[in-house]
Predict the structure of Outer membrane protein assembly factor BamE.
Amino acid sequence: MKQFRKLILAAALTTAVSGCSVVDWMVYKIDIPQGNFVEQVQIEKLRVGMTREQVEFVLGRPVLRDSFGDDTWYYVYQFKNGRTNELTRKELLVNFVDDVVNTVEGDYELSEAFDTPLDTGRP
């Protein structure tokens, strides 16, 4: 009879604790990064007049390209912290006109030299 009580008590305790968020802190949850991780150092290298190849060299391939026109590239990064479920999202849009950079918009600070085109070395 005592063993039966212990068994019932153990089953009830296991059921109560398994549905409780008290145990949640013990479970390891991974961090989930998605998209293009772009650092501020990379953004500071961008200049007006850069070609598509130069932008791809500096930032990597974009996550999205505009399907109706190839004049806008989207760099999107999302990070979900496994422990706190905090979501961080950053976006960068690079707009091209005649296959060179025209404007850059997003969650990053552009360098002061952004409006100064690169010297191509051509006369």
